[in-house]
Design goal:
Strand order of the largest sheet: 2-3-4-1-5-8-7-6
Shape: globular
CATH superfamily of the largest domain: 2,3-Dihydroxybiphenyl 1,2-Dioxygenase, domain 1
Largest sheet: 8 strands, mixed
Distance between the termini: 18 Å
Oligomer: single chain
CATH class of the largest domain: Alpha Beta
Number of strands: 8
């Protein structure tokens, strides 16, 4: 399938509470990954299916929310194409610790979507 959903991410206003809730609700493997002095990331291993992650919500005043990511072959081209089709680029192409690149768009209806290009060496 072209452009599959590949990652689902929770931006939480209370990461500890989210980890406790989802860790109790589902049979997920939660693994903390250090991302620097002021940020941590929790990988969500689900076994079969699309995994994801959890992190502290970085948008002031925003409630907790889930964001789906779609895999693309060319992150720059896909981001610019979305923009030409009327999307706003909330976060432009950003490298993620050697694992790949992401961007976040807001479609013309206001829905948020992440785009992801994995680093071939990290895949």
């Amino acid at each position: 399938m072209a452009n599959p959903f590949c990652h689902v991410e929770l931006s939480s206003t209370n990461l500890a509470s989210s980890k406790e809730f989802y860790g109790s609700l589902f049979d997920w493997k939660l693994e903390d990954v250090p991302m620097g002095p002021d940020m941590s990331y929790t990988m969500i291993g689900v076994g079969d299916g699309t995994g994801g992650g959890m992190m502290k919500n970085m948008i002031p005043g925003s409630p907790s929310f889930w964001l789906a990511y779609v895999q693309v072959d060319d992150i720059q081209t896909a981001t610019r194409k979305a923009e030409k089709l009327g999307a706003k680029v909330m976060r432009d192409v950003t490298e993620v610790m050697g694992a790949g690149w992401l961007s976040i768009i807001v479609d013309p209806t206001g829905a948020h979507l992440g785009l992801w290009k994995p680093n071939a060496r990290a895949a």
